[in-house]
Design brief:
This protein has two domains: 240 residues, P-loop containing nucleotide triphosphate hydrolases (Rossmann fold, 3-Layer(aba) Sandwich); 36 residues, no CATH class. The protein is 37% helix and 26% strand. It is built from ten helices and twelve strands. The chain has a six-stranded mixed sheet with strand order 6-7-8-3-9-10, sandwiched between helices. Strand 7, helix 6 and strand 8 form a beta-alpha-beta unit. Helix 3 packs parallel to helix 5 and helix 5 runs parallel beside helix 6. The termini are far apart. The model has no long low-confidence stretch (mean pLDDT 91).
Length: 285
């Protein structure tokens, strides 16, 4: 397997993807460096998940341009070698395989096993340590389809650890989760990034978290790269207008000092609120 001595672990050069005649990605060029935490943002249908899956060589449709993984063209990688390098963590939705958490983690050890080989004690040890490290050991004998979305997402992260992947590709990892499980998942990802030098590339709609945690941010709109830079530069009215097509209300974070997005009522909502307040005042007279 190609080692990780290269500083640039993922690179796209004028990479395009068409599905059913529709352009999903349009000549995207970017680099992701080893150990970075990179967030991919943008409106729905921007091509975010397609770009993420391309980095894991899950190609659909007609593609053009170049895509390198650790300095080597994606098509030259053996699948078993690529699986030792990258792990794709899906959304925590309702779909789940009918296996126990332990069985699922052991299946993720396949890049290190010969065909038809039995599970080795060393594989069980790695899986056990991954579950202990992610707080999922209590789920070892439970089937994935009996776990909550938050519990299952933690198992998926444990699987990425058991897989030994150096690059985690996360597709909206906190979608469908409550605040407690969101915090657990994001803490595990941050720990892997900071303590174990895992490169994190995460698709997210949580722009505030992306700004607080990311080293750099990639923004897509209609398949085009419209921003690629540091978090402090993305939280500007003109940049957010270019990405999302509207200007949100920004306030300063009390600790980091970075701009954060807060809810803002539309003019119609403000009118309705004014009507409600007027009626309330009349009733109180």
């Amino acid at each position: 397997m190609r080692n990780l001595n290269t500083n640039v672990v993922l690179e796209a050069r004028k990479f395009s993807c068409h599905i059913g005649g529709k352009a999903i990605l349009k000549e995207v060029s970017l680099q992701i460096r080893r150990g970075e935490y990179v967030s991919i943002i943008g409106p729905n249908g921007a091509g975010k998940t397609t770009l993420l899956k391309a980095f894991d060589r899950i190609m659909v449709g007609e593609i053009s341009g170049e895509l390198d993984i650790c300095g080597m063209p994606w098509e030259e990688w053996k699948q078993s070698d690529l699986a030792k390098l990258t792990a794709l963590v899906p959304q925590a939705d309702s779909r789940a395989l009918p296996f126990t958490a332990e069985q699922f983690l052991l299946m993720c050890r396949y890049p290190y096993m010969s065909p038809f080989a039995t599970v080795r004690p060393s594989d069980r040890k790695v899986a056990h340590e991954a579950m202990v490290g992610t707080g999922t050991i209590a789920f070892a004998k439970r089937r994935l389809d009996t776990l909550s979305s938050g519990e299952r997402q933690k198992v998926y992260l444990a699987a990425a650890l058991a897989q030994g992947a150096h690059i985690w590709l996360l597709d909206e990892p906190t979608t469908f989760l409550d605040y407690h499980h969101q915090a657990d998942i994001l803490s595990l990802v941050a720990l892997a990034n900071k303590e174990f030098d895992v490169t994190v590339v995460a698709v997210t709609h949580d722009l505030n978290h992306a700004v607080l945690e990311s080293d750099r941010i990639i923004a897509l709109r209609d398949g085009e790269l419209v921003f690629y830079g540091t978090p402090d530069l993305v939280m500007k009215p003109d940049v957010l207008q270019r990405i999302y097509g509207f200007t949100p209300l920004l306030v300063e974070h009390p600790r980091s000092g970075l701009p954060m997005i807060v809810p803002r009522m539309t003019p119609e909502q403000e009118k309705e609120l004014a009507k409600w307040r007027a009626k309330a005042r009349e009733k109180m007279k």
